[in-house]
Amino acid sequence: MIKEKTSTALTFEDFKIEVLNDYKIAIISRECSLLGRKEVLTGKAKFGIFGDGKEVPQLAMAKAFKNGDFRSGYYRDQTFMMAIGELTIQQFFAGLYGHTDIKQDPMSAGRQMGGHFATHSLNEDGSWKDLTKQKNSSADISPTAGQMPRLLGLAQASKIYRQVSGIPNASNFSIEGNEIAWGTIGNASTSEGLFFETINAAGVLQVPMVMSVWDDEYGISVHARHQTTKENISEILKGYQREHDTNGFEILRVKGWDYADLIATYEKAADIARENHIPVLIHVNELTQPQGHSSSGSHERYKNADRLAWERDFDCIRQMKLWMIAINIASPEDIDAIDVQAKKDVLEGKKAAWNAFIEPIVEEQKELVALLQRIAESSNNKETILKFIADLSGIKSPLKKEILVTARKVLRLILNENGKQELSQWITSYTTKTQKNFSSNLFSETDLNVFSVEKVLPVYPEDAKEDTDGRMILRDNFDAIFTKYPEALIFGEDAGTIGDVNQGLEGMQEKYGELRVADVGIREATILGQGIGMALRGLRPIAEIQYLDYLLYAIQIMSDDLATLRYRTVGKQKAPLIIRTRGHRLEGIWHSGSPMGMIINAIRGIHVLVPRNMTQAAGFYNSLLECDEPALVIECLNGYRLKEKMPLNYGEFKTPIGVIETLKEGTDITLVSYGSTLRLVQQAAKELLEVGIDCEIIDLQSLLPFDINQDVVKSIAKTNRLLVIDEDVPGGASAYILQQIIEQQDAYNYLDSKPQTLTAKAHRPAYGTDGDYFSKPSTEDIFEKVYAMMNEVNPSKYPNLY
């Protein structure tokens, strides 16, 4: 538990200094918003979304926010970030300009629009900082309420650290679980399902979460009467209010312009959450939005005169000024002096940010102009090149794009001239250098990436037989994992008491406790959120989604948050979450889907692993726990009771990621597949061999990353034919696989026949054994597809079947 607080008397003079400093931060933030909008309207910035009108409540939140705490907020929290010392004026404008230098824009190095905030959790080598010695903000995303699921996990981590012993390096992440996860959201976004799902889950779990709703009565132009029942989120959440011995929330309400009451409310909320791990919702109402939603429009279009007048009167900064004057904190003249200085400071910070942004680009502009002038002197297209030079030189504030466009267009004019090589080299060098600013860190670029894990084979007894259910391989390997990694935990629907629906976790909850092997409600998005938040705080969570089809409930969180996390922070945050699910062939439309194309194209930034059996799957879990990247592992639904050999080295054998396995060598055609379908491919290959067709069978094992050693093309170089078998829809994962093989591996150089695919039908699979047979590839389908391809090669040897 936390230590008792010691009260220190605060003199009026100390109080005055603190209030004046708060006011200074608020007015600087407001001036940043006002000047930021002008920068957008004059064209220096592309888009602006600002925190004006929310300054004073964010000051109150910052006062209650301690080292080790985490924020999961949205794009109006600039005042809060300034108040905790994590955002300067210059950094604010660097983000607005999209500066690609992480030192200038530490939030995202220009990858996100302004207003999206983050702190750095990692050292340069990818190792963790001591998060208890700094104030932390998880990286923001734009999708409304998308920050909510992650918030749940950030709060749950404190509960785990408080109640689970033996976690290595726990003191770098938590001090006895005393940290609060602070959430912020606009009132309109509370209409999203993710908000309600998270609120319900937090009430069930009883985690230290303080949720602030900034309520200015609008969602862009849409009034709260169209957003929220009773136009009041705290009113309709009354059922979540904790009573007597029930779980639930503490719900507090406060006016957003009342500085003193805001301070008291946030102190109360922090005490409740920090000491007792009870979630708190603070409904901050009567807020304003002086410039409207964003720089893309004016709020005068949808607010009437009475509302606009009220907003002028009850602007939180104006009300703070009146309060300061009323209790003799400051005179009007004192406040005016602060306002004047704030304007000056913001203007200077803006100028410094702009100069830091534009000066390196201007130097690049000059460098290219000088090169083109030398080339023009001896070129047959001198006049045209001089026109390009004049146009580029005339751009006062050039973009990198404009520089590169000019260079590439001039290159076309001098293809047979002496300057071609020098300009070509300049373009290549410039593109390589610049592209990294926009494309690095989709995956880990540290020594902890998946490729750093070396393959370790399962070890078997000499007399090992295939007599062990696959689910027992998983169970015993999870047992080894939970012993080896005290920071590992797993949670999902039916994962606890019954040991998951296929008993791959049988007995694990009884052995390791309800916190490390946990049942959760039917709420896939927040299961993912729990995993992301806990992974952000140094734990190694495994989030279980019961069936692959149910992943669609969580795909937005995976795509917009987890998959982009490392990218949008330029490698300054990581969440090595493992997502466990099971899929492919079962029964019925919503239990047997294989929407792999949808998944792999939505979650670039997460590895997608597709083991064909449970030994492979167990090896993937072992590999992933030795690296720092997120991954999705899809176990085969029809493999839990198929027999496998029982290894001796549970927890130690490792399936390599991104490496294919050749299951059968052959000479006539290469068959590529993954997961459950491989058993059908293997059977078809046996039958094809009986008619003289010798197939080579390749198990891809992982789709992201894909065949890093380019072994598939080596097979095609031998067989000269390719068939991809997939149970996704036509053009789904099979299209991606073909693109990788034909385009990335240049397999077209070795093909004597058209590469083909065999997929499921375009519809969802129908129910029952016959539904499966007529919806997805069967052994006969594979046999006949291969046979038809060989018929084209040698019709006399392989006459038509039909």
Automatic annotation (TrEMBL):
GO terms for biological process: branched-chain amino acid catabolic process; response to nutrient. It is an enzyme of class 1 (oxidoreductase). Transmembrane segments: none annotated. It comes from the Bacteria. E1 component of the 2-oxoglutarate dehydrogenase (OGDH) complex which catalyzes the decarboxylation of 2-oxoglutarate, the first step in the conversion of 2-oxoglutarate to succinyl-CoA and CO(2). The keyword Oxidoreductase applies. This is 3-methyl-2-oxobutanoate dehydrogenase (2-methylpropanoyl-transferring). Keywords: Oxidoreductase, Pyruvate, Thiamine pyrophosphate. The keyword Oxidoreductase applies. One of its GO terms (molecular function) is branched-chain 2-oxo acid dehydrogenase activity. Pfam families: E1_dh (PF00676), Transket_pyr (PF02779), Transketolase_C (PF02780). Residues 468-642 form the Transketolase-like pyrimidine-binding domain. Its EC number is 1.2.4.4. It comes from Flavobacterium sinopsychrotolerans. SMART domains: Transket_pyr.
